[in-house]
Amino acid sequence: MKPVPLRLKKDQERRLLAGHTWVYSNEVDTDATPLKDLEPGAPVEVIAQRGRWLGHGYANPRSLICARIVSRRHAEPIGATLLVQRIHAALALREQLFDRPFYRLVHGEGDGLPGLVVDRYGDLLAVQLTTAGMERLRPLVIEALEQVLRPTHIVLRNDTAVRELEGLTQGIEWMLGDDPGEIALDEGGLAFAVTPASGQKTGWFFDQADNRLAQRRFGPAQRVLDVCCYLGAWGLRAAADGAEQVTFVDGAESALQQVAANAERNGLGERIGTLHGDAFEVLRALKDDGARFERVILDPPAFIKRRKDERDGTLAYERLNRLGLGLLAPGGLLITSSCSFHMSRDAFLRTVQAAARRNEQDVQLLLAAGQGPDHPVHPAIPETAYLKTLFLRVLPGG
């Protein structure tokens, strides 16, 4: 389909010229180029009010982000050649970073492919198409992945809620091969069983891999609490590094069963215990029981999924961190995360500091980290720096 022009209002190109790739519906001159005439995912050429050509992209009149720029070279329209080039470039970076094929292969805007996420589990690729533009390119995306990586399995994990914002249906579909069920994954010498077709996200959270390994910098902890643990990656890393007892908390009984299996798989079964229930309720019960830990790990799902959730979500982060801090022994380490891209790192740090002061505790920030390098941040798009992970020490006597 031949791209159609999408003309902007006066002075609305500045952010795009600085490198941003999103066009908002209120920035479009709808008298010159009506959005209602465009099909979701249709290719467009974004043009400034005075006629300056800005880039090839795709549109979705049903979304607040009504267009996304994919190519800034006039001679490189969106198509099979561009997809193959971008995937090759993404693979080259990962092969520099990793000695084993377990990582995020394509990270949307960070890899120049907005709306496309690909996680790699050896010869299995888990793919998410989160925009109407990428959904329209589905056949070309699959062909490009097969050409570059020669996988044996490709599963579409299009069950993410963000597709609803684009007017897309949700579902899981095998594009190549059959569902192998559990597969083995290695992270830092630990073995985990993951299910890319049914686990959270695409089965694993690659973005925290470096942060989990960074625990080693702070030495072993005697007692560790891993809250919202999923498959146990944080806590089992702590156990492997010398923790004597690790308690895992999750609201899904199935996740805790998988934690136990992963612990046995790594010879750590005797060092773990599990608690099933709502994180807030379990933490309150532990406090009432007088429990104390030398390390508390908080890695919850996003509490701020939309801008309108900011107030309530911030209060939830403060409550969770206050409860976690209250269980730390003097000198203990809090590792706390937010994956809400609507919350900045500074805002998250202020929230955790507020939680500490409400507990009449003083904390030291030892390390402020983000997502791993297989989740590259687009410098012009702050929203792509979504993960914040803080390592804080509770001062004795604070």
Kindly describe this structure:
This protein has 398 residues and is of the alpha/beta class. It has three domains: 4-71, PUA domain (Archaeosine Trna-guanine Transglycosylase, Chain: A, domain 4, Roll); 80-176, Transcription Regulator spoIIAA; 205-394, Rossmann fold. Helices cover 26% and strands 28% of the residues. The chain contains ten helices and 19 strands. The chain has a seven-stranded mixed beta sheet with strand order 15-14-13-16-17-19-18, sandwiched between helices. It has a five-stranded mixed beta sheet with strand order 1-3-4-5-2, with no helix packed on it. The chain has a five-stranded mixed beta sheet with strand order 6-7-8-9-10. Helix 2 crosses helix 4 (138-149), helix 8 (279-288) packs parallel to helix 9 (310-325) and helix 9 crosses helix 10 (345-358). The longest helix has 18 residues, at 80-97. It is globular. The termini are far apart.
Strand order of the largest sheet: 15-14-13-16-17-19-18
Q: Strand fraction band?
A: 25-35%
Mean pLDDT: 95
The shape is globular
Largest sheet: 7 strands, mixed
**Secondary-structure element sequence?**
EHEEEEHEEEHHEEEEHEHEHEHEHEHEE
**Which class of the largest domain in CATH terms?**
Alpha Beta
Q: Could you say how many structural domains there are in total?
A: 3
Total strands: the figure is 19
Which CATH architecture of the largest domain would you pick?
3-Layer(aba) Sandwich
Number of helices: 10
The CATH H-level superfamily of the largest domain is Vaccinia Virus protein VP39
Under CATH, the topology of the largest domain is which? Answer: Rossmann fold
- The helix content, as a percent range, equals 25-40%
Secondary structure class reads alpha/beta
Please mark out the parts with pLDDT under 50 across 5 or more consecutive residues, or reply none: none
Termini, distance in Å?
A: 65 Å
